[in-house]
Design a protein that fits this description.
By secondary structure, this protein is mainly α. The chain is about 55% helix and about 0% strand. The chain has a domain of about 35 residues. It contains three helices and no strands. The chain starts with a helix and ends in an 11-residue tail after the last helix.
């Protein structure tokens, strides 16, 4: 009985998220340029090319800066993965060690 209720609740949640999900998507990146009076302009191809040319020039002027993503830093991608792996691995290891002994451990296995 509980399995049927859980399955029904899960299906309702999936369909609800699927229904309301697209309506709450932020489209702010497509607004274009904003003028001095607050009006929204159009983001033209020429403006996009100008911005990209400035980004390339800034990257070439500062070759030591890289892409701006610190992969090996503790606040970067690899650092965050290493820290989270150490934390969750430590918790999992402690649970595995505790699970081998205790009141509910299987007889003859530790």
């Amino acid at each position: 009985m509980n399995t049927k209720i859980l399955l029904a609740a899960s299906l309702i949640a999936v369909f609800t998220i699927g229904t309301y999900g697209p309506s709450i998507v932020a489209y702010a990146q497509y607004m274009g340029n904003v003028g001095s009076q607050g009006e929204t302009g159009s983001y033209t191809l020429e403006e996009a090319l100008e911005i990209q040319a400035r980004r390339i020039a800034a990257a070439e002027a500062n070759p030591g800066a890289g892409s701006g993503t610190p992969y090996l830093d503790a606040s970067g991608v690899v650092g965050a993965v290493a820290i989270s792996a150490a934390v969750f691995g430590g918790i999992a290891g402690a649970l595995f060690i505790r699970g081998r002994s205790g009141k509910y451990a299987a007889m003859g296995r530790g």
